[in-house]
Design a protein that fits this description.
The protein is α/β, with parallel strands linked by helices and 405 residues long. Helices cover 42% and strands 15% of the residues. It folds into 2 domains: 233 residues, inorganic pyrophosphatase (n-terminal core) (Alpha-Beta Complex); 144 residues, Diaminopimelate Epimerase, Chain A, domain 1 (Roll). The protein binds manganese (II) ion.
Length: 405
């Protein structure tokens, strides 16, 4: 069966397992007494690696093990699919449209014991008790409570020296002659090129297994190595393409939630400068919708000049609940940081947008990876200082009750 036809029927396959087994639903397929459902699930970022690994591995396994069902699931709610612009771009090139895809919210709330889960591109999951196989390239997190819930029989293939999980899938795809699919090869190839930053020697995000697989896929696709740079540029541009997104979607596109015991602070990374974002019509409505329950919102902007490839970055801090002291505390922590020095400066033209604080970040090497821990420490410091007040309140509230008992 071809990849397209396989995908067109996965929804029906899933439905057959989830609805109470109706004889009519099963009549269409060859009956097998122990026909089992295997979900193939990527990680919650649903980047190209996770999405492609899940889709292609599910297809390969489904073709090789016809007595069972394999269904790929993208680990995001369906509403977030438009945000994954590079995924949409590559899937579009392969004729895969959103209606045939399955998402996290297509799954039932309760996972019964008889459903097996195959994790790709991550290995810590709340579905651990159901997991039978793992293909991953993240550093092993065997201290995570959910990791310890994996069954002893779970087959683990975790290799952090590999740049892309798609390499691990490609190894399985190419290991046997069947099935063969141009689309599968194309998706795996593109993913490896993107994840390894096109085998950049400075980024060093690849190993020999990635190199071997990209070459073998190129042989199958009849592509030359010289075509990689163009493909890489195309994928990077697709990932940064926010032209079809609403402003609230731009905020959600690449968001990380920073959680302490007391609060949740979203850090939104955007492929546009914050300064330009806040000037857009509807920006205030979008920010209010995005950060409705947060004391603080951190915006990280980045813009790559298409003309010369020069990178610019800036930062915005906004508090919807008017916590100006908290904003000031985080601002100071960012400005004072020396590891790394973010080189924050005021913008040439100031903005009063929602009473927030907006700064240029002249150290363009520093990314969210560097900024997140600085923000977190500032939040914890601030909470520690304000903690005493809370305890006093609780003390006075509870004292009369204690006296009565
Ligand atoms: Mn990955």
């Amino acid at each position: 069966m071809c990849f397209q036809r396989y995908l067109a029927q996965v929804r029906t396959t899933l439905g057959r397992h989830l609805t109470e087994t109706s004889p009519a639903a099963w009549a269409a397929v060859p009956t097998h007494p122990n026909r089992k459902l295997h979900l193939v699930l990527g990680n919650e970022s649903c980047d190209l690696d996770s999405a492609v690994s899940a889709m292609t591995l599910a297809f390969v396994y489904a073709q090789r093990n016809r007595e069972h069902d394999y269904v790929p699931v993208l680990n995001i709610p369906r509403r977030d699919y438009p945000l994954k612009t590079e995924v949409g771009h590559m899937f579009g090139k392969c004729g895969i449209s959103e209606p045939v895809l399955l998402f996290r919210d297509d799954l039932p709330k309760e996972m019964t014991r008889d459903i097996s889960v195959i994790l790709v591109d991550h290995h810590v999951s709340s579905l651990a008790p159901n997991v039978t196989q793992i293909l991953d390239h993240r550093p092993l997190d065997d201290g995570a409570p959910d990791y310890k819930l994996l069954s002893a029989s779970c087959e683990k293939n975790i290799d952090p020296t590999v740049g892309s999980c798609a390499t691990l899938v490609a190894e399985r795809y190419l290991a046997e002659n069947e099935p063969r699919s141009q689309n599968v090869a194309q998706l795996l190839h593109a993913t490896i090129v993107l994840d390894t930053i096109n085998f950049s020697p400075t980024a060093k995000r690849f190993g020999p297994r990635d190199q071997c697989m990209v070459q073998n896929l190129e042989l199958e696709l009849g592509l030359g190595k010289d075509q990689r740079p163009q493909l890489f540029d195309e994928l990077v541009a697709a990932r940064a393409d926010i032209s079809k997104l609403k402003l609230a979607e731009v905020l959600r596109k690449d968001m990380k939630m920073l959680s302490t015991d007391r609060q949740e602070v979203p850090l939104a990374g955007m492929p546009i400068l914050v300064r330009d974002f806040v000037d857009k019509k509807g920006a205030e409505v979008a920010v209010k919708e995005f950060a409705v329950n947060s004391n603080l919102l951190v915006l990280l902007g980045m813009y790559v000049d298409p003309a010369d490839g020069q990178v610019r970055r800036d930062v915005g801090l906004i508090s919807l609940s008017g916590q100006s002291q908290l904003v000031e505390r985080v601002r100071q922590a960012l400005v004072k940081s020396s590891d790394p020095d973010l080189q924050l400066r005021p913008h040439d033209v100031e903005t009063q947008f929602m009473g927030g604080c907006f700064l240029r970040q002249d150290n363009v090497q520093a990314t969210r990876k560097h900024i997140l821990p600085i923000v977190k420490e500032a939040l914890l410091d601030w909470e520690a200082e304000h903690c005493c007040d809370c305890e006093e309140v609780i003390y006075f509230k509870e004292k009369p009750q204690l006296g009565l008992s």
